Amino acid sequence: MATLRGGDLSRLRQLNSLTAIGALRGAGPLTLSALAKRTGLSRPSMKEVVDELMQLGWVEETPPAQGTIGRPARRYRFRASSGYLVGLDIGGHNIRAALANLNGEILAETRQPVRPDTPVEERLAAIERTVASCLALGGKTIADVWIVAAGTIGVITPEGRIHYCAAIPAWTGLDLAGRLREMFPCDVVVENDSRLAARAEAQRGTVRDASDVVFLHVGRRMGAALIIGGNVHRGFGAAAGEIAMLPQAQWFDAPEHLQNCSIIPPDTSPADAAGYTLAAARAGDPVALAAVERYVDDLAVGTSAMVLLLDPQVVVLGGGFSRSADVLLPPLRERLRRSCIRLPDVRASTLGDECVVTGAIDYAVAHLDHQLFTPDVPLPTSR
Amino acid sequence: MATLRGGDLSRLRQLNSLTAIGALRGAGPLTLSALAKRTGLSRPSMKEVVDELMQLGWVEETPPAQGTIGRPARRYRFRASSGYLVGLDIGGHNIRAALANLNGEILAETRQPVRPDTPVEERLAAIERTVASCLALGGKTIADVWIVAAGTIGVITPEGRIHYCAAIPAWTGLDLAGRLREMFPCDVVVENDSRLAARAEAQRGTVRDASDVVFLHVGRRMGAALIIGGNVHRGFGAAAGEIAMLPQAQWFDAPEHLQNCSIIPPDTSPADAAGYTLAAARAGDPVALAAVERYVDDLAVGTSAMVLLLDPQVVVLGGGFSRSADVLLPPLRERLRRSCIRLPDVRASTLGDECVVTGAIDYAVAHLDHQLFTPDVPLPTSR
């Protein structure tokens, strides 16, 4: 049999640790034998891996099962509560926070409305309040938090600075990661909100079965994200998915067809305007139906560009307008059938408004796992 | 140390075989110790791997180095000439064939012109003639060939059938892989020509350093291919890269600006028309320069869609028009700078007209390597 040496060995050890954590996450307590069976590793190797993970505080021994004859086998579980994760969705109209354990199980959620023109310092203060109330709701303090993962709208540099943000003009140029690090004494990561939503959809939403996905993040703003070969595609400068910036894609102003439909009562809040049009279309109003047709015409151009280019297995309609998928999906499918070579499966998101904050939690979990792979980064240890 | 078992073991063994073949390819004869050093494997593991590869006919022992004191160490080399590969580029206007050894080193190339309206059976006969003359030129027969890899224009199913081909209308619906298998008594694979050209560019061309690439395959026809995370992206139904099919991308008729410029002398062959315009633009002719501007305007729309969506490290201008990259790249860069968030590096192909046939050879090499990873496929053995 071939033997691994040197660099291969430590990579293999890390892979084994991750495999063990993966097997323990979500499962009840497992014996070494059960764990070895699930991971395909030998029992002695499994023992070594588990001992190391226990030293790091990631895994703990549980009391033996009651009433067992003879000496009961030791059982181990992932210490999902040895640390906590905070997910943030910083949008134009809402700040959302979620608190989760290390399994990504969400324990508390809070939301506070803001406006696209809310000044930067006020928006940052709203973020701090939303997180504080989420921690209080979950009975934790910021000292319990290992990672804050924030999603926001706009083009974000790999370092977490806002390169450009059309939706929140004051956001452009802000060192968001830096400001959040001043606010929270833990690891902070920042990512584009559409990419986080796509990640949530792949992890716990409607495309758990697909590895090539175009995610449409549509609401009052238009966004997109790509999953290619099972990975969320970031791009060389972390700027992928910005098809809305191409005038010919007809995306930028597309929501106006729904937001400014003539049937909307004059006192309707902008937050409810598109919903009014979509509801009226569902009820058969011809003016609303015509507005929906124009909206889907535009939506289909950018979507066709992505489908023709990537030939994905699935297109997911996500974001705020996905609540009206029953109205939007049939005409979207019909247009894609005409313009594309192969019509992908077109599905509605099942995560709704929580898609970004949920994806932020999943991103934090992935970031934590990634630390296992990076030898120079000290692993967080249980307090 | 952790021990691998079961499925892991055979995967590891295959990985070791590939690593060994990779180290031997292109290198001179190597001793077991040198090979172990290069691969990071232990000498005993290396011995096992080499023995197996010798049994399969992939590796051979060479005579010991002359004049060595004491018992000379055995040396091994990859048997690049134990089999041969044929690459094919089946275009609208030309059939090209290349013969290579198992290292992908090209030993002979032949070309025969055809027309887009050449009937299917005539085109297939031209393919057979082009391959026969290429084999004769290289001093081989079809019995020496392990794999024929064919690239052709159009949307091709994963099984090698032509789903749709605008450039060669009679091609649509043809079971190309089936017809080539009737013609050649060996393994046959078929792939889209732009994807093969992109592969060649990544393997031996101008983007050996990049893993996220948009490849523009531009000439009398417009095509594109994507390299994402180091892999040529095929798409779920093998139909990726077809941005030219979207009218709003302004690609389909773009070459007409160069093909039908008013300064082209009336007796110019269509094969030379665009080249005439590009040469006149290089010399400063204002009418030709205006035609180039219009062409680049259109080229930039589809290219911007891809750049905004994927944020690649590099855009490569390949295909027939890449010979005029000096005329085309400056205005293309200028437009991308205006329309995109981040201007990628924009480079010209270095492979020219041979890009598809070269990529077909590289695809055949990859297909051969892939067989090592697929336990149920019997490995080709030396005759």
Keywords:
Arc Repressor Mutant, subunit A, 383 residues, five-stranded mixed sheet, 11 helices, Nucleotidyltransferase, domain 5, homodimer, 40% helix, alpha/beta, disordered N terminus, 3 domains, 15 strands
Brief description of this entry?
Two copies of one chain form a homodimer. Chain A is 40% helix and 20% strand. Chain A is of the alpha/beta class and 383 residues long.
Strand order of the largest sheet of chain A: 6-5-4-7-10
User: At CATH's second level, what is the architecture of the largest domain in chain A?
Assistant: 2-Layer Sandwich
Task: Give the helix/strand class of chain A.
Answer: alpha/beta
The biggest chain-chain interface is: A-B, 59 and 59 residues
List segments of chain A where confidence is low: pLDDT < 50 over at least 5 consecutive residues.
Answer: 1-9
In angstroms, what separates the terminal alpha carbons of chain A?
42 Å
Instruction: Please tell me the total number of domains of chain A.
Output: 3
Radius of gyration of chain A using CA atoms only: 23 Å
Q: Helical region count of chain A?
A: 11
The biggest beta sheet of chain A, please? 5 strands, mixed
Query: What's the CATH superfamily of the largest domain in chain A, by name?
Result: ATPase, nucleotide binding domain
How would you describe this protein?
The structure is a homodimer of 383-residue chains. Chain A has helices at 6-24, 32-39, 43-55, 120-137, 176-183, 193-204, 256-259, 270-282, 286-310, 325-339, 355-373, and strands at residues 30-31, 59-62, 75-78, 84-90, 94-101, 106-113, 145-152, 155-156, 162-164, 187-192, 213-218, 222-228, 231-232, 314-318, 345-348. Chain A is α/β, with parallel strands linked by helices. The first copy, chain A, folds into 3 domains: 6-78, Arc Repressor Mutant, subunit A (Orthogonal Bundle), CATH 1.10.10; 84-197 and 355-373, Nucleotidyltransferase, domain 5 (2-Layer Sandwich); 207-350, ATPase, nucleotide binding domain (Nucleotidyltransferase, domain 5). The first copy, chain A, has a 5-stranded mixed sheet, sandwiched between helices. Chain A has a 5-stranded mixed sheet with strand order 13-12-11-14-15, with helices on both faces. Chain A has a 3-stranded antiparallel sheet with strand order 1-3-2. In chain A, β4 and β5 (94-101) form a beta hairpin. The longest helix of chain A has 25 residues, at 286-310. Chain A starts with 5 loop residues before the first helix and ends in a 10-residue tail after the last helix. The model of chain A is unreliable at 1-9 (pLDDT under 50). At the A-B interface, α1, α3, β12 and α9 of A face α1, α3, β12 and α9 of B. Chains A, B: GO terms for molecular function: DNA-binding transcription factor activity; kinase activity. Chains A, B: Pfam families: MarR_2, ROK.
